[in-house]
Amino acid sequence: MSRLDVNRSGEMEVFARVVELGGFSAAAKTFRMTPSAVSKLVARLEARLGVRLINRSTRKLQLTPEGAAYYDRVVRILDDISGAEREAAIGATPQGRLRINSSVPFGLHRLLPLVPSFLARYPGISVDIALTDIVVDLMEERADVAIRVGPLRESRLLARKLGESRMVVAASPAYLARNGTPQTPAELATHNLLGFCFPKQFDGWPFLDGKGGVVTVPPIGSVLISDGEAMQQLAIAGTGIARLTRFHVENEIKAGRLVPVLEAFNPGDLEVIHAVFVGHGGQLPARVRAFLDYLVENVRLD
């Protein structure tokens, strides 16, 4: 075969097989092609993209950083194509593996309680759930849907709003008995404020200044933590004062394990919660669309 004309998905499939099998010859056998034809196909792909994807040597092939990133995206795209074909063959019935990434508080308090009823409604779907408060790249993590709390930064992602939750500053009764209850935002300077150990998009905790404006207090203390659930537990244990979403701490406040403070200075700011996902030409696998619709239908925040 001196020349092979393929569409882009075909090129992707050949490239992915070269990477997975570690060479042109092995990949050529699976497609009943010659090694030179496979090599030329990859070369044409590199020429069209304008980057080198694979470094070639006499002993082995090695992906360039651009090649590794392209391979990760190719695997996701090919998986979506296979899923679309399977769904079309059975009338787009939602099925297959759904990969979900969520913040820890939302995952524990809102997402996980919905999983049994979601799976009962869609028995053809299975789920992989990862909980982390660190913002992940959906393409790199190969996640179908991620739950994001706070402002969205990535314009390439599509989003559906699930709701919003008021922020609350709170501490345990034991902490307040030991350290006193702050009466003004300025008094927080003498308290242990719990913060996150990853970057967040704010300068500090906002409070009304009593003059029609807002002041911010940086959360400086002896502990930085990786997720909101761990921060809540530290606050309950009396370690310090935390600032968390109302939906996260409402049960602890009702039970008396946490006490809101400085409510007179609360500006009423809200954390918006979205389900974000990657859209391919406006098309979504049925399993993803079913999950998004189910979240919008069933999630209740404040």
Quick recap:
This protein is an alpha/beta fold. The chain is 39% helix and 22% strand.
CATH topology title of the largest domain: D-Maltodextrin-Binding Protein, domain 2
* β-strand number: 13
Superfamily at the CATH H level of the largest domain? Periplasmic binding protein-like II
Backbone structural class: alpha/beta
Order of helices and strands: HHHEEHEHHEHEEHEEEEHEHEEH
Radius of gyration: 25 Å
| Sequence stretches where pLDDT stays below 50 over 5 or more residues | 1-6
Text of the CATH class of the largest domain: Alpha Beta
Average pLDDT reading: 86
Q: What portion of residues belong to β-strands?
A: 15-25%
Helix content: 25-40%
Oligomerization category of the chains in this entry: single chain
Shape descriptor reads: elongated
- The DSSP helix count reads 11
CATH 2nd-level architecture of the largest domain: 3-Layer(aba) Sandwich
Main sheet? 7 strands, mixed
> What count of structural domains?
3
Features:
302 residues, alpha/beta, Arc Repressor Mutant, subunit A, D-Maltodextrin-Binding Protein, domain 2, 3 domains, seven-stranded mixed β-sheet, two-stranded antiparallel ribbon, 11 helices, 13 strands, elongated, disordered N terminus
